[in-house]
Amino acid sequence: MPLFGKDKKDEPVQPTPSPARNSTSTSGSKHGLFSRRRGSSPDVSPPSSPARSSTRSSGLHNVLHRNKEDPSITSARQRVFQAEAAEREADRALASARAAVRDAREHVRNLEAEAAEEARLAKIKQGQAADISKRAQPLGRHDKT
């Protein structure tokens, strides 16, 4: 489809013969820059155009896919994949280590709290034992003989 013209299927069919269109008098200066292209013979430009585009696309295809076949590119890509996997594994190991440290600290806090509670209870027990001991000192006054 031309960029600045009508599509040929949208144009009404004209009874005028096509050779009159292609004559040098009609394709002269009275037609614009874009009209001249429409008047050119269709058998010259369309076949060369697809041939060039297919060559370009196959050349582009070869350029794009050449890197996939190059062993140095493949090796570099593989190394990048391995480095990414190693980073993911290191991230998992770091998260695991952080969780282990968090658990250990929590365990130590629990032990300290437990020890503090046991110390508090031992202090209470010691105080109660001292009170009982004081009360028991006057006992046995009848044993003196």
Give me some keywords for this one.
145 residues, mainly alpha, 4 helices, 0% strand
What does this structure look like?
It is a single chain. This protein is mainly α and 145 residues long. It has helices at 18-21, 33-39, 45-69, 71-136. The mean pLDDT is 75.
Radius of gyration: 49 Å
Beta-strand content estimate: under 5%
| Pattern of helices and strands | HHHH
Q: How many strands, what sense, and barrel or not for the largest sheet?
A: none
Structural class: mainly alpha
What's the assembly state of these chains?
A: single chain
Q: Low-confidence stretches at least 5 residues in length (pLDDT < 50)? A: none
Number of helices: 4
Calculate the mean pLDDT score and round it: 75
Shape: rod-shaped
Number of strands: 0
C-alpha termini separation: 135 Å
In short:
With 145 residues, the protein is mainly alpha-helical.
SSE map:
Layout: H1 18-21, H2 33-39, H3 45-69, H4 71-136
